[in-house]
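Field reference: "sequence" (input) and "structure" (output). Example, Exocyst complex component 2:
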Amino acid sequence: SGSMSLENFSPAWYLLENHQGASFEDLKLGLANMRLSSRSRSEGPTAFVKANIGAILDCLDSLNTMYDKFTQDDIQRGCIDSYAVSLFQAKSCADGLFQEVLGRKDQADQTRNALNVLQRFKFLFYLPLNMKRNIEKGDYSVVINDYIKARSLFAKKDVKVFQKVYKEVESMVESFRDMLRKKLMKLPNTLHEQKKIIGYLTSLEIRGDAAWECLTNQERWLHGLLVQCKTSHLEVSADPGSQKNSATLSVNYGRGSRGSSALGEPGFKFRTPQKVLFVEELTDIMTCNFPDFWKLGQAYISGQIGSREEVKPGKVPPGNKFKEMVSSLVKYFSNLIRAAFLPKSLATIPADTRKEYGAWSDSQDVSGAWLPHCVRYVRSCASSLCSQDLPGDCHDMIQELAFDMRTNCLKLLLNQAINDVRCLDSKETWMVELDDEFGGTTQLPALFENIVNEAIQHLHEVVVQNRSGESEIFSQRPVQKEATGLCQQLLEAFAPCLEHLALTNLDTGDQAAATLRPPAADKRTSYIEESTPEDTIPPKHKRLIIMLSNCNHTRSQLLPRLVENLNKHGYVEMNKVLQTCQATYKALDRKLFEAYIEEKSNPIVGVMEPHMYRGHFDWRHCKQPTDVRNYVKEVIMGLIEVHAEVFSISPAFVTPVMTRIVGAVSEEMSRLIQCVPELGTNGTIQAKLELMCLRDTVQLYQNKQSETSLREALEYLPDISEENEKKVEELMTTFRSQMKFQLMCFTKDKAAA
């Protein structure tokens, strides 16, 4: 009993009845107060006796005197017995009178005692109902605390009613354990929720290790998601006509899933490649779920959650098992990506094992337009996983996957840029934009520069630019070497395009005439007059000088700029590439220049001899000269035409082109004069007049070879009289006056020089 006045008083029972909610410190304070009260009670009677000792002794003496007197008077002691009999009779009478009242009093006392028990132990009696309500509300911590409290108070009590209620509580707790276990095994779930449930199960002393069971279940679930993702996308790729799309394939893979591209939905003209949807979904699975799995495992290994038992000898520690699980997941994920995008990297794996990662058909290869998108997803996933402080082998595996994807993207984009440059000839419009500084060029050099710069910028954003923890893309020598070779191919790919446009018979439009339209805006622009579709392609000699100008502009302006941009973005050995590419374009420049010289000089030189002897001209019996003959004027007009054509495209080429053609004309003129067997007086005057007029006209573009040729021709002529010399001078003056307008281009160039 908890009552201090009864013989069966129990201190523990007293505390349970009166102080069940008190803490240990409060109980210690209560004990000190009780000791103080007991000391006060014991000291009170002693003080009273000390203060009234005389009166107390007088009372005792009086009682002893009265007792002695009473025994002397009642010799036979009968009086006391009669008193006892009278008292018993009075008691029997009283019992008869008040038996019914006393019975009701006893019943009331029993009821009151029962109510007192219910009131005192209402926590236990209301516990099943309270547990049910709290479970429905989700207040699991309250349920667990109440259960622990009830177990400590009533688990070992022998009172039947207590045992009956406690068994019902245990039954509810067992159901509660099963519910929490099922909730723990249901995925996906948040890390915080999993830790809470594991803590609840640990507090409820569940059989087994709830944390380890959760980890193994989550590992199986994650692996199953990866397998399901691979299988579903391979099925769709094998059946392109299927009505399935990314939305129907998608399951609840995790929290915050980014989902697939909208282009994969029906109704869009262009469907997202299946590999792209696959890598989006696969990386989402790992990014959204793997970090929680890793953090849960770390919490378990560090002892923050679960109830780890001592490892028995011969068994693998849970920490090692967990690392094996993590390594297996990372390896499977990495190989799934490699099977889709880098199948050659799995060549060393046995064929049976390789089948587990799926076999994608070549028709499902991702183009350069989509591969950077895939690389971004893989790099983002790798960055998320590596930020979890994974074991060394897993970290290296993920980083190697990201590096290989970046390297593959680098090769693909550079090769695609090379192909784009090689196809630029189909985009030539033959519209020449004139620039005072660099001469005239078409849009092709600008398109070439744009393709290269866009490829460089795209690669910088997707591949070259490093994220935290990633390796430098050019840190490995094989990658450096391959990137350098591809960059050289990219810069050299424009040369065959120029050569094709200049030297190949593109169409029947070689006979089309090229005219200049007035300048527009702040740039002068030369257009090919569009009369019919066939006339849009200029003749070969026009194409040669245009492509020669494009080639010179590319070699002198574009290549240094592009190499500087490549150096700025970290590409190595670009100066050697610049030298090699400039040699390539220089060789093309010489080839186009020689072709143009041949194209323009042959018509001029080829007609000199026929026109010289037109009308059966005879140097021995010709008439007295009155003017320079037409064939010389035709040669000069041909030179002026070449000058105008070159100057309209690229003024920088006027001097070298004119010098070469003048040299060919001078050599042919010298040959023709020296082949004349005999010259009469008039013939000598005519020949000297024509040679000197030609020499004075092209003097600006003469070199040693052309000067020597004309001098040899003049020396071959017989001497003439002074009068004839004056005649030659007069005719030369007349020629200059008549040809003043035609000869202005030469004088302007001379003044400019």
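The radius of gyration is 56 Å.
The CA atoms of residues 684 and 718 lie 7 Å apart.
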